[in-house]
């Protein structure tokens, strides 16, 4: 009985009354101010049946009104409504509302793509006091949760497991991480086989921004622009192709993907059949990164330079966090001598305004990450990365952002596709004592680069994508157009 009383008292520390969410509700006089008020977002499609089981437990423990199924309501609608109501209540002198505003923490249960969706919304809403985010690992790779100490195995869904997680949320510390903006522009003649991506095939973190003729409606050349963001990685090549095959199968047969271990076995099997292990038999040279695209990078100088890519590289990863493919660290820890030789000026930090760019030859190359000092081919550290796809190399490429893959059409004629990645500020994550991600303040020897805003480097530059970079486009209210197919 005592345990039940303790649990009930503890749960009150996270409880938010209904009137905070629903303006029409009568004001409730809470017996205590919650020390760690939370809003919980659950992707009930993630983790097989686990997402559904988890949301039931959270709704029984907390107020039903503070736990949301992302299949029923998008996070931008929830947060916009919540913060509008909080502002109204604060101005009316409501002490509880003021404390909820100040102490609020978000919990998101899903894969890396789901977590990225929520982070994009928080970034787009430009809140005066943005809440930090904790991630529940319900995906296959779970790189975001693993990086910040939340683990990579799917969690328990019973009361005790959820209460233990809530306690970790209460005890966790806030940590800044870099946000990365991505803009993709496709230009091609009208009726070209290089069609835009269908909205259902887009990852949550990438949105159609606009479609327009280059000059006037009679013009034969059209431009399609997409924008979005990531917090862990952007990758292109064979790793994204395997991921795309996995996601395609899971869409067709969701009933076969309810167990994390069997999902990982399926993933490995697909890596074999897609040619990630057997390049000479399955993988044409035209899919090597150097044959697909010219890659340019921008360092602190603010000038673009072409990055040299070995012909053998078939996957390229732009990495922000020290976790990829379920907890592996492709960058590793280069020695001081190698850092100086390769102009790798910083250790891999999550808040330094730099991406680590790594290449892989094949899956055998990737297996070296399992060894203590294993790493991919370190190519560069950069503030910006730009991919200019070569005409006629192939009709499509595979890309992936934070676990969500897509098949990108490429022009076989006079069109072009450009993908550009740039720094876009920072968001707040919640980190446990098991956090493996490192920030500038964790390294005394690091220069104070966190006080330098990379955006300031570009203020005097002619930026083709300036308008697109105003938001990630993660919140529906920030889309210029609903989607390109409706134009």
From TrEMBL:
Q: What is its EC number?
A: 2.7.1.107
Q: Which UniProt keywords apply?
A: ATP-binding, Kinase, Nucleotide-binding, Plant defense, Stress response, Transferase
Q: Which Gene3D superfamilies match?
A: 2.60.200.40, Probable inorganic polyphosphate/atp-NAD kinase, domain 1
What are the annotated GO cellular component locations? membrane
Write down the chemical reaction(s) this protein catalyses.
Answer: a 1,2-diacyl-sn-glycerol + ATP = a 1,2-diacyl-sn-glycero-3-phosphate + ADP + H(+)
Enzyme class, one word? transferase
Name all DAGKc domain ranges: 33-186
Assembly and interaction partners? Monomer.
The job of this chain, per UniProt, is described as: Phosphorylates the second messenger diacylglycerol (DAG) to generate phosphatidic acid (PA), another important signaling molecule. PA is required for plant development and responses to abiotic stress and pathogen attack.
Name the protein family. Belongs to the eukaryotic diacylglycerol kinase family.
Q: What is the protein named? A: Diacylglycerol kinase
Query: What is the species listed in this Swiss-Prot or TrEMBL entry?
Result: Zea mays
The gene name reads LOC100384658
């Amino acid at each position: 009985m005592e345990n039940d009383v303790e649990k009930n008292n503890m749960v009150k520390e996270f409880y938010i009354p209904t009137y905070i969410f629903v303006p029409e509700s009568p004001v409730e006089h809470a017996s205590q101010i919650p020390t760690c008020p939370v809003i919980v977002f659950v992707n009930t499609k993630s983790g097989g049946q686990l997402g559904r089981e988890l949301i039931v437990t959270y709704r029984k423990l907390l107020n039903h009104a503070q736990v949301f199924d992302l299949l029923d309501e998008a996070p931008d609608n929830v947060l916009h409504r919540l913060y509008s109501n909080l502002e109204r209540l604060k101005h009316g002198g409501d002490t509880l509302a003021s404390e909820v505003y100040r102490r609020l923490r978000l919990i998101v249960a899903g894969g890396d793509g789901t977590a990225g969706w929520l982070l994009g919304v928080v970034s787009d809403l430009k809140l005066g006091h943005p809440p930090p985010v904790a991630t529940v690992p319900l995906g296959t790779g779970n790189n975001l949760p693993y990086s910040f100490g939340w683990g990579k195995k799917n969690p328990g869904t019973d009361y005790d497991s959820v209460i233990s997680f809530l306690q970790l949320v209460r005890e966790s510390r806030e940590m800044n991480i870099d946000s990365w903006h991505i803009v993709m522009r496709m230009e091609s003649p009208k009726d070209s086989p290089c069609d835009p991506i269908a909205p259902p095939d887009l990852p949550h973190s990438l949105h159609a921004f606009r479609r327009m003729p280059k000059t006037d409606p009679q013009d034969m050349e059209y431009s399609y622009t997409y924008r979005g963001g990531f917090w862990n990685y952007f990758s292109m090549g064979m790793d994204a192709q395997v991921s795309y095959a996995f996601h395609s199968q899971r869409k067709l047969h969701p009933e076969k993907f309810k167990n994390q271990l069997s999902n990982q076995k399926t993933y490995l099997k697909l890596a074999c059949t897609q040619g990630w292990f057997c390049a000479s038999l399955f993988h044409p040279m035209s899919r090597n990164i150097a044959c697909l695209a010219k890659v340019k990078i921008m360092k602190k100088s603010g000038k673009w330079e072409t990055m040299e890519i070995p012909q053998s590289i078939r996957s390229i990863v732009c990495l922000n966090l020290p976790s990829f493919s379920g907890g592996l660290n492709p960058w590793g820890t280069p020695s001081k001598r190698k850092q100086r030789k390769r102009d790798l000026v910083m250790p891999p930090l999550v808040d330094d305004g730099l991406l680590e760019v790594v290449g892989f030859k094949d899956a055998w190359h990737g297996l070296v990450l399992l060894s203590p000092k294993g790493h991919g081919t370190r190519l560069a550290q950069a503030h910006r990365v730009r991919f200019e796809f070569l005409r006629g190399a192939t009709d499509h490429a595979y890309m992936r952002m934070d676990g969500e893959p897509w098949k990108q059409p490429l022009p076989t004629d006079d069109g072009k596709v450009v993908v550009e990645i740039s720094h876009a500020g920072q968001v707040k994550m919640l980190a446990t004592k098991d956090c493996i991600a490192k920030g500038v303040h964790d390294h005394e020897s690091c220069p104070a680069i966190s006080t330098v805003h990379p955006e300031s480097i570009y203020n005097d530059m002619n930026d083709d994508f300036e308008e697109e970079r105003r938001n990630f486009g993660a919140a529906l209210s920030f889309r210029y157009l609903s989607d390109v197919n409706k134009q």
